Amino acid sequence: KLFFTDYGNAAKVERCDMDGMNRTWIVDSKIEQPTALALDLINKYVYWVDIYLDSLEVVDYQGRNRHTIIKGRQIRHLCGLAVFESYLYTFNSDNLSILRINRYNGTDVQSLARLDNAKEIRVYQKRTQTAVRSHACEVDPYGMPGGCSHICLLSSNYKARTCRCRTGFILGSDGRSCK
């Protein structure tokens, strides 16, 4: 799945399959300007920062069990968000500091370091790097990913795929080749 925020005409947090299909709104009320987004892959939670409402919130992958982690002025300038163990990590663009926030109660907020001009933050941890299993976009004997001549996108699960073409090309009737 792909998770993303949108604050165009109607602000929301959404998810879809990797090929763009099955687009679903998981948060579409009491939300104004969602920016930073992070996933807890193990427990299946979505965290986001709303810089207009000065809030950091969480919801499960289906849009249920929504609650606010922390609210107030200290949220106003946050950009980037990452989850690791019991904490959320983010960057405050106002005072250029990396913050660590307890994701269960929001009370333990610590400034860890200062950085100039950061916009994102990522945490890489071996446990969150799932083992790759055979999938529909693997390279075939002819060197084409998933048998697609240009682009292979995983669909609703790892066994399904959708072929797409680069700009200027159209997908052939076989659903794999681009012309």
Word description of this protein:
The protein has 179 residues and is mostly beta strands. It folds into 2 domains: 2-125, Neuraminidase (6 Propeller); 133-178, Laminin. It has no helices and 13 strands. The chain has strands spanning 2-6, 12-16, 24-27, 34-40, 45-50, 55-60, 67-71, 78-84, 87-92, 97-102, 109-114, 151-154, 161-164. The strands form 4 sheets. Strands 4-5-6-7 form a 4-stranded antiparallel β-sheet, with no helix packed on it. It has a 4-stranded antiparallel β-sheet with strand order 8-9-10-11, with no helix packed on it. Strand 10 and strand 11 (109-114) form a beta hairpin. The protein is elongated. The two termini are 29 Å apart.
Indicate the structural class. mainly beta
Round the Cα radius of gyration to an integer and report it. Answer: 19 Å
Our estimate of the beta-strand percent is 35-45%
Going across the biggest sheet, name each strand in turn. Answer: 4-5-6-7
Task: Write the topology of this structure.
Layout: E1 2-6, E2 12-16, E3 24-27, E4 34-40, E5 45-50, E6 55-60, E7 67-71, E8 78-84, E9 87-92, E10 97-102, E11 109-114, E12 151-154, E13 161-164
Antiparallel strand pairs: 1-2, 2-3, 4-5, 5-6, 6-7, 8-9, 9-10, 10-11, 12-13
InterPro entries: 6-blade_b-propeller_TolB-like, Cueball_EGF_LRP_Nidogen, LDLR_classB_rpt
GO cellular component, one term: plasma membrane
LDL-receptor class B repeats: 1-43, 44-87
